[in-house]
Structures are given as C-alpha cells and as structure tokens.
Specification:
This protein is α+β, with helices and mostly antiparallel strands. The protein contains 31 helices and eleven strands. Among the domains are: 91 residues, Phosphorylase Kinase, domain 1; 122 residues. It has a five-stranded antiparallel β-sheet, sandwiched between helices. It has a two-stranded antiparallel ribbon with strand order 6-9. This is Putative Serine/threonine-protein kinase SAPK1.
Length: 708
C-alpha cells in the first residue's frame, strides 16, 4: 500500500510540473500582450522565467523577450549591459540588450534575437566534426567579447555553452558567437571577498569551490571558457561528476586537468592549459590569450577556408562602399564563421528533437509529460531490484550529464548544474563523513526514500524534455514570423479578415492588426481608403464588444494610430467614447489587478495622443471633459493615495503622466502642481531603476505654459 501511495505521489508531481509548465507559458504570453508585444513562440523556459520570440509593433522589429519575476530580477544584468553598450556599441560578440520594462510582478528584458541557438548544438553532437578553422574562429570571437566585458571591469561568472548564443544575420552568410545572460555578472573588486558563489558547476573555477572566503575575479571566466572549449572538442566535461562535494574533493586531489586524448594540437593545449590553470594569478587573461600563437602563428593564419576568405573579401568591398553593418571583424577572415559550417549542427539538432517528439507523442497526437504506466513501470523496476545500492537506484533516473544512450547525441541540460549559495566547506565535509560512516556500518537503505529523493531531478529532466519539444517552431509559428517580418498584407485582405474576425485565432488577429497599423502609418490617403472600406467602423464595433480585460495593447494601439492620423477631433472623441468610458469606470476601484493597471495605462496614452493633435501652447482637447466627468479628480486621488502600501509603482506613474498631459499649455492648479512636477522629474531621472519615459513628455507639455 505504501509503495502504491508513493507511486501515486510520484505521478502527481510529474503531472503538476506539466501543468505548471504550460500555465507559466500562457501567463507570460498574456504579460507580453498587455505590454505591447506579439508572442510568436517560446524560445526557452527555466527557473528564471521564459524567453519568447516576439514582435514589437512600436519599433516594427522581431526581438527576444525575456520575462523574469521581479523578485528574481537582478538589476546588475541590465546595468552590465547598459555600461557595455556605452563603452563599445559595435562589438558583435556580445548580445545586444535593447531595454527593460517593469511590468508589475514581472520584468521584461528585450534583447536581439539570436537565431541559431547556442554552442550546445555543437557540444551535444559528437558525430559531426567541427573543422579546426571554424573552432579557432569561434574561440577568437568569444575571447574578443570577453575582452570587452573584462575591459569594462566586469566578471561574467556564468560562461558556459548555453550562455554563448549563435546568430546569423539574414542574408549575411556568417555566424557570430554572442556572450549573453549577464544576470550573474558583477563588477570586479580586488579588495572585496564574499561568502557566496554563483555559476554552473562543471564550469566553476577551483578557487570558487575550495577557498573560503573567495574573491571572484575575471579569471573565473577564463577557466569557464576553457571548459567550454573542451566541451566543444570532446563533447563532454573533464569530469563526470554532479555534486559540489565531488568537484571540491576532485580539485583538492589534482593539480591540473589532464589533456583529453582526442586533443592532438600541442599549441591549442598549451593555450587551454593556461586557461585551466588552478592558480588564478597565473591563469592567462583574455587579452593575452588573443596574442597566443594558437591565433597568431603562421600555421593559424594559414588555416583559413576559401569560404572564410570569400566572406571577408565581400565585407571589405562593402566597407569601401561605406555600407552599414560591416565591422572590422567581418573583414578579417580569422574571425569569419560561414553559416553552412554551423547550419549542419542546427539541422541535426532539429532532426533529433523531431525524432524525440515523434516517440514522445500519444497516438492522438497529444504531448504527454510521460505516461502514467511508463512512470509506474520505471518506479516499480527500481523498487523490485532490492540488491541495488541507493546510488544505483538514483541512476535509474536520467540525471547524469554525459548520457551514453545515444552515441550520436549527448543530451544535456546545463541549468541542472546551476548553483549559488553560501560557501561552507566544513558542513560539506561533515556530510561526507556521515555518509561514509553509514556505508561502513552497512546500514539498510530505505529504497522508497532513495528513489523519491530523485523525483525532483527526474521531474526537472522531464520538464526540459517537454520544453525542448514545445520550443520546436511549428509551420504555423514560422508563418506568423514571416508575416510579421514582411507586413505586406494588402488592405483588401485585411478587410476580408475583419469580416470573419470572430473565427480567427488570437495570433491571426494580432498579425492582422500589426499589418493594419503598418498600413495606416503610411500617409493620410490610407486613412481615407480605410474609412471608405468601412474598416474603422468594423474595428470600433469589434472593440466596443470587448471587456477591459479583453483589450490587449495592440488592439488599443489601433485607436492611437487612428487618433494620430485623424483630422476631426470631435469625431475621434465620439468614436472612442464607449471604449474610454469602460476605462474610466475602472478608476473608481483602484487595485493592483492587471485590468486596472491596463486601464489607467490606456487612459494616459489616450490623453497624450490627443495632446499631440494640437499645436504647442494649445490646451489638451480632453481637459474640460475630464474635469467635468470627474476623471481628473480620480487620477489625482490615485496619484496621492498612500493607503495601499503594496500599490504597483506603475499606477502612480501612469496617473501622474495622465494629469500632466491634461494640463498641457495651461497652468496646473497649485494644490497638486508642485507635488506632481517633483514626482515626474524623479520618474524621468535615468538613474531610476525603472524610469517612466512618458514622464518627460508630460513635463514638456506642462512646460508649454510655465517654466519647470
């Protein structure tokens, strides 16, 4: 009976993890939609949050959006990216961080989209040979990116295959390696030490694990990159270990990492051995590594393929013509990585995942997490083998990093080995001693307990399998991406789609609206044609039927575009009145609910849009109406409300911007004017972790009447 209960509990945990996985993806998609993005497809998911390929209709660009719970967001990730951008805007070997948004309980970080996954697609495929010239070029690219990072005074602290992305700009024929994920990065301080370590276990330098307290320097990145390059060459880690205690013990026993048998290049090993030096003081720097004979010798300079030279010559020609997007590295063949050399790894990875997906599907085509019968069978087998040791039982679950089950593909999830915590060598040694004493005394093993201690690891492994399937781009998602890149829907097609609007999927509606927004922004004549076709009336009829909760940002953006290009202000106000009255009604019940935050956000954008309809110094056409119907009073109450200590900071920001926009070109009342102006100035300060850019617009509009 106890065994059956344990099995039931095991299956429930797996099912719960599956539900949480899909629920989290849906929740994050909703956040993106409310903030003005169209989620195209998920790219990654983990304990940190989710990454989506998204369309930003405000800037007409395809980008990657990383959603992190506010409590897990480390501002250092953004600060590092911001400082790096100011120091070196042109380095193609660092992922470009565009901006970040505060979205209540979540933070949205926008980065460029790297379209060829990560170095893991190479590390996981031992049957495909990476040519020496391509390995050298990738190595050199990463070192340059690391050099820029280190010159800015930072230590990354989590260099690994998964954090080095690969990107091929469409039509370029070349691939860039890009260091990403600055969440663990920190300013190097030669004077400070700490009791905490962060990183991914197989890549962590010995000094982090065996010294306490530890001073984390940039040299930990050099060691981690050495391990990364070893993985690309050997497709495995130097040690097949999984626990901190095991690595700590190993590094105490040895003085250096042994040379892999497959590594035949003496010059390369000379460089790697200097990167893997246990003494961080003796460990080579990124700048010195770039001057190593492995990169500068005549043999290295001669190891260039015709494809590399051809792409380099093409860039030189483009550079002479002063074409954009050509940098110094494009013209140097030793940095060039031709796309076909990496494409073969990407194609093989997709074939492997598709094969895995096919074997993972139920007969009805549904994606299971794992069938209940399969889980029961696996757990029963574990229990029935009484002679197994606890470690052998745990090995029943796929937790080892170097799987030998598929010689063509070593499937490995690096985030399983992410660790951060307090350094406590004494506690770890005591644990080892207690374990050894138990083994020496031949104490009986509680098999059920031993197996189910591994449930968490098994569930995480299964979650990642499910994620790898879920992140395969479907034909429908690829079509959506293509349509959003091109935005070439003819207006007649948009009109036809509006007639069958109810039958469209949400993503089809979003694509149609994105195309319509792009069409309306062309010129005044487009609005006339849209009105003649009755498209505006159809849109208003559709939007008027929606509740506030159902109005996502791209729907409301249509209204703002119509206001921007429209000419009859009174007609525009009348067209929008029904929708805006719904928004105003929400102001009477302030809360942190998404619908309330969205409503007050839509109201201030609506106010600013009408303010832009009149000349400088003229008053906002909405002010008198909003004073008479009590909207101004409600906004002032929300702005001044101090009763809710947990109030979302955006609510006060949005209310303040709305008030400021209403008092365009007219003196703001003294009873709240000074307080409002001071707050808006504070919110527009770039030193504010979450500045509100619209605050500057509100200040500018009020300044049309008075000096601020």
């Amino acid at each position: 009976m106890e065994l059956e209960q344990d099995q039931f509990h095991f299956i429930e945990q797996v099912s719960k993890s599956k539900r949480e996985f899909f629920s989290s993806l849906r929740f994050n998609e909703e956040i993106l939609r409310q903030y003005g993005f169209i989620p195209i497809r998920p790219l990654g998911h983990g304990s940190f949050g989710s990454v989506f390929l998204s369309y930003n209709f405000r800037e007409n660009s395809i980008i990657a959006t990383k959603i992190i719970p506010s409590k897990k967001f480390d501002l250092r990730e953004w600060n590092s990216a911001d400082i790096l951008w100011k120091i070196d805007k042109s380095c193609p070997f660092l992922l470009d961080y565009v901006r970040h948004y505060y979205q209540g309980s979540q933070i949205i970080i926008i980065t460029e989209f790297a379209n060829m996954k990560t170095l893991n697609i190479i590390a996981k495929q031992p049957r495909i040979t990476l040519p020496s010239n391509i390995f050298r070029a990738l190595f050199k690219q990463i070192l340059v990116g690391m050099q820029v990072f280190h010159n800015a005074g930072f230590a990354h602290r989590d260099i690994k295959c998964d954090n080095i992305l690969l990107h091929s700009p469409p039509g370029s024929g070349r691939v860039y390696a890009k260091i990403s994920d600055f969440g663990f990065s920190n300013k190097e301080n030669s004077q400070s030490t700490n009791q905490y370590f962060r990183g991914t276990l197989p890549y962590m330098a010995p000094e982090i694990l065996i010294k306490s307290p530890v001073r984390t320097t940039q040299k930990v990145d050099i060691f981690a990159l050495g391990i990364t390059m070893i993985r690309l060459l050997t497709h495995k880690y130097p040690f097949n270990l999984t626990a901190i205690s095991e690595y700590r013990q190993k590094y105490r026993e040895i003085k250096m990492i042994e040379r892999p048998d497959v590594l035949k290049d003496n010059i390369l090993w000379n460089l790697l051995s200097q990167m893997l030096e246990f003494d961080p003081i003796k460990r080579i720097s990124a700048s010195d590594a770039l001057q190593h004979p492995y990169f500068t010798s005549p043999e290295a300079l001669a190891d260039i393929s015709p494809q590399q030279q051809q792409l380099s010559d093409k860039s030189k020609s483009q550079g002479l013509n002063k074409e954009q997007n050509v940098n110094e590295f494009d013209m140097d063949p030793t940095f060039v990585v031709p796309e076909p050399d990496i494409q073969q790894f990407l194609q093989q990875e997709m074939l492997h995942i598709q094969k895995f997906k096919d074997s993972y599907l139920f007969k009805d085509g549904q994606l299971p997490f794992a069938s209940s019968s399969q889980l029961i069978q696996e757990s029963t087998i574990s229990f029935s083998t009484i002679s197994k040791t606890s470690s052998e039982i745990q090995n029943t679950f796929p937790l080892q990093p170097n799987s030998e089950t598929d010689p063509d593909f070593t499937d490995e999830f690096e985030s399983i080995f992410e660790v951060y915590g307090q350094i406590d060598n004494t506690y770890d040694e005591q644990q080892q001693q207690q374990l050894q004493q138990q083994q020496n005394q031949y104490k009986p093993v509680n098999l059920a307990k031993s197996v189910y201690q591994s449930v968490t690891g098994y569930v995480e492994q299964e979650s990642r399998k499910l994620a790898s399937i879920s992140f395969i781009a479907t034909p429908e998602q690829l079509l959506v991406e293509k349509q959003l890149r091109e935005l070439n829907f003819p207006i007649d097609l948009i009109n036809v789609q509006l007639d069958k609007f109810i039958g469209l999927t949400l993503q089809e509606k979003e694509v149609m609206f994105a195309n319509l927004i792009n069409y309306l922004k062309k010129d005044q004549q487009t609005l006339i044609k849209v009105q003649q076709l009755g498209i505006i009336d159809k849109i208003m009829k559709f939007l008027n039927k929606l509740t506030v909760e159902q109005i996502i940002r791209i729907y409301f953006e249509i209204l703002l575009v119509i206001i921007n290009i429209g000419t009859d202000i009174e007609q525009l106000k009348q067209q929008m009145s029904e929708i805006m009255n719904k928004m105003k009604q929400c102001l009477t019940q302030p809360s942190n609910d998404d619908s309330f935050v969205a409503s007050i956000g839509y109201i201030f954008r609506y106010i600013l849009a009408f303010g832009r309809k009149v000349e400088d110094g003229q008053q906002n056409p909405l002010r008198e109406e909003y004073e008479e119907d009590g909207t101004v009073k409600q906004l002032i109450h929300i702005f001044r409300d101090k009763s809710n200590q947990e109030q979302d900071v955006r609510i006060k920001q949005f209310a303040a911007v709305g008030i400021g926009g209403l008092y365009k070109g007219i003196k703001i009342p003294d009873e709240f004017g000074s307080e409002l102006i001071m707050f808006l100035k504070l919110q527009s300060n770039p030193e504010n972790p979450f500045p509100c850019g619209r605050s500057i617009l509100a200040l500018a509009e009020m300044a049309e009447c008075q000096g601020i």
